[in-house]
Amino acid sequence: MKVIDGGVTAPKGFLAASTAAGIKYKDRSDMAMIYSTVPCKAAGTFTTNVVKAAPVLYDKKIVTESKSVQAVVVNAGIANACTGAEGFGYCEDTAKKAAAELNIAEDAVLVASTGVIGMQLPIQKLESGIEVMAKELSDTREAAHQAACAIMTTDTISKEVAVTFEAGGKTVTVGGMCKGSGMIHPNMCTMLGFVMTDAAISKELLQEALSADVCDTYNMISVDGDTSTNDTVLLLANGMAENPEITEKNEDYRKFCEALNYVNTEIAKMMAGDGEGATALFEVKVIGAKSKEEAKILSKSVVCSSLTKAAIYGHDANWGRILCALGYSGVEFDPEKVDLVFESAAGSIQIIKNGIAVDYSEEEATRILSEPAVTAIANMNQGNAEATAWGCDLTYDYVKINADYRS
Q1: Does 159 show up as a binding residue in the annotation?
Q2: Does the annotation flag 336 for ligand binding?
Q3: Under 8 Å CB-to-CB from 2, ≥6 apart: which residues?
């Protein structure tokens, strides 16, 4: 596998465009379109929130029932959530307009929205934006980047990753983009993710690969404990790499899953590190657990702890908060066997051994915790399983951003 500079246009046959439709923002682009020159197999995973936005309901139906997909239309600023039949109708209107402009079937169009809940979409602005984007579709790196920027809300950076690998003597590419900064919590988190590949792969294995991978990537991040109404990850495969179609779990499937995992992991980490108001990516590795499931529960418990997140913001090695978060996770373990280490680009320092603080330097610990990416490694010393979760520190700016989000 090789990491390359790219996004959703990196795989063969994928084009992108963006525009400023004026949906909510007055000074920036707020719509994006991804288009494949040939029909794609489609897979998707969606929010577990009982309150599901209209685009989630619409896309679940398309992914399940449509034979192929060729385009995705995304808007930022308004979530089209809690909007009833009118909101669902706007999903249909969006798909109908895109289908007409691109000369494809209506059920070959997926839609996604992100932004304020409860507001109706200005459908005329969306339709005008579709007209513009359909004429400006491009396979350039810049088109992909601008599309990634257009779907941002409170994000401070765009999030894109691409890789290549060899399958059946052909070069296969996987490229993705996502948005997410707040209302991010495990179990599909407000995040939108779009991953494109030119791999030839069956729809069944495409869905299986995505469903399995989100458990170790997007479902292992948390910014603020809120699971959104709009969470969506879409994976489209157009087969233009011309590799022998992957129809069984062979070596090519393993390589595809590895590439997909890399893309999803990296953009998931970008979301966690770009949490609203955040100054640091906070990674929690739990090792030595009795099972992977227990390791996941333990790591997510720590990464979701508001007190621990605040300590990371203060560069304070307040290890008691981490041990406490492990303790209320619901997993049974012996606290007198736990070891804890902090790591960053500035070095590594052991904080506790066998559940008790060692003689460490607070100044050294603060220096290590002052980096833009910090890791806490908790060794439970009870088995061989491990898992990693990602989050961010909790800052004053998180409250400021969310206190006036609508205004």
Answers
A1: no
A2: no
A3: 163, 164, 165
CA pair distance 124, 113, nearest whole angstrom:
15
Q: Give the model confidence (pLDDT) of 102-153 as tens digits.
A: 999 999 999 999 988 999 999 999 999 999 999 999 999 999 999 999 999 8
pLDDT-wise least confident of 127-136, 152-161, 313-322, 340-349: 152-161
71, 38 in Cβ contact below 8 A?
Answer: no
DSSP character at residue 41: E
What residue type is assigned to position 368 of the chain? I
* Residue environment code for 189-206, b if the CB has 16+ CB neighbours within 10 A, otherwise e: bbbbbbbbbbbbbeeebb
In this prediction, residue 48 carries a pLDDT of 79
Is residue 117 within 8 Å of residue 81, measured between CB atoms? yes
Whether 337 has a binding-site annotation, put simply, is no
Sign of the dihedral through C-alpha 48, 53, 56, 57: positive
Consult the annotation and say whether 156 binds a ligand.
no
Annotated active-site residue 190? The verdict is: yes
Residue of 230, 191, 248, 198 lying closest to 214 (CA atoms) = 191
Residues present in the chain in total: 407
pLDDT band at 223 (very low <50, low <70, confident <90, very high): low
pTM of the predicted model as reported, rounded to 2 decimal places? 0.86
Phi and psi torsions of 167, nearest 5°: -145, 120
| pLDDT surpassing 70 at residue 187 | no
Among candidate residues 45, 114, 190, 197, the one labeled active-site is: 190
* Predicted pLDDT of residue 401: 75
Cα–Cα distance for residue pair 100/184, rounded to 1 Å: 35
Mean pLDDT of the chain: 93
- Rounded to 5 degrees, φ, ψ at 192 are -125, 130
* 3-class SS shares of the chain: helix, strand, coil, % to 5: 35, 30, 35
Q: Is the pLDDT of residue 177 over 70?
A: yes
Residue 203, pLDDT > 70, answer yes
Q: Which domains does the chain have, with CATH numbers?
A: 2-273 (3.60.70.12), 281-403 (3.10.20.340)
Beta bridge partners of 179: 192
